[in-house]
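Chapter summary example: a protein plus calcium ion.
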Amino acid sequence: MRASPLLSLTVLTALLAGPAASAQTAPPSFEGQVIYQVMPDRFFDGDAANNAGVDRGNLRAWHGGDLPGLTQKLPYITDLGATAVWLTPVYRQQAGNSFDTSAYHGYWPEDFRDVDPHFGTLAQFDAFVKAAQAANVRVVLDQVVNHYGYGATAVTAQRDWFTPQAQCDASQNKDVDCPLSGLPDLNQGNPQVRELLLGNAEFWRARGVSAFRYDAIRHVPQAFLKDLLARDRAAGTWTLGEWYDADTGTVAEWQKAGFDSLFLFSLQKAMKASLMSGQSLTQVRGVLERQDELPRPGEVTLFLDNHDIPRFAQGSLFADEGQMNTRYGLRALMTLKGVPVLYQGIEIAQRGGPDPDNRQDMRFEAQWTPGEKAVHAAARSAIAARKASPALSLGSQTLLPMPAAVQDDLLLLLREQGGQRVLAAWSGARQRRTYSLPLNKLGLSVGGQDLTKSLFADQNAGLSVKGGYLHVSIDGRDAAAFTLK
Ligand SMILES: [Ca+2]
Ligand SMILES: [Ca+2]
């Protein structure tokens, strides 16, 4: 894995100090990374020879995307600026459908140590990892540790691997001991299951992945997860847990228990309500105010949508407004401390309601409308600005106090790193506005500053400081970032 310069130094120091110091080696970090989330079946079809049963007219059927297609589109992902790719599971899946749905999504495993033929072969997985490494892109692999697919062979062949119904009935923790959506629930208390799951992590780690995204951790015993995570940490594998609906308190609890990161669902909800649907920015502020509860705030995973919830742009009734507010959301996301994840298609404001409508095929450049091209350009430049700015990608984050008169429409964040300061401004106002705020009320110390343009390209936004006042001019529904002198 590639480490940040800071981490490299820490690791180097630990190495120089010899084995005794290895226990003090910093845990793996993704701070400064930008993750692009891919659902391989819905991304790009690079090999028509593996398209058995493909029906692109049916969102519940296989669509033909695969690992060769993902490898082929790596330049698209790096051009956008992402530094890591998270793939939803690529395991060999149950062969048949359940609930009229095929296992295209990857969450119905048959064999945890093979690639589904629709996605390709293990050799093609290895080729993808190799290509990613050559492009300096980290690979984040989805890992399922809670269940098998409904129709998996193990369900009948290894009955004692699964939680008995009586245990579910008697359980005080039904989230853990009862089947999730009826899926065959693995009993991690069985030594064979434990060995299977710990071995799965070793199997994929050995293929060169940098991180695991653990599915449905709310449904897995904490004691088992702690063992799993301790091994990942010792091996330098970054871990990202999916606890559906997690807020800052849940993320903090699990960072303490050994996860490097969890998805911050509460921020996603607030950003969708405020930035996409036009509600007060105080909702976002309420989430960001809790940042100090996190042991490692730079590792928390931030997102606007994913494959399990309706698309971000779906929060507006109108496609053009959805595009404009997605541009606002993407720019805002790139000003925050944490690890941003972009689910394929958000960079063109792809629409879609609940599963499976939120899993429509990715469309590429030649198929984009002018409006989609504009969203992509804004995403690309905001990512580039974040990566070019140590303050935006690695800096501390301070929320500035807002006067009551503007708090619904304005959010100001100070990001600081190594003496560099960047001020991020989000405006939810309907129209272009100039906000003039007294520096002493903001708790901000700046000398005079001439008109300064935003770090984001193609944006009509400016900041100046004069006579003890900060002046920020910004379009309605937009976020900008300014270097402070
Ligand atoms: Ca294919
Ligand atoms: Ca379970």
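Key point: The first helix runs from residue 5 to 17.
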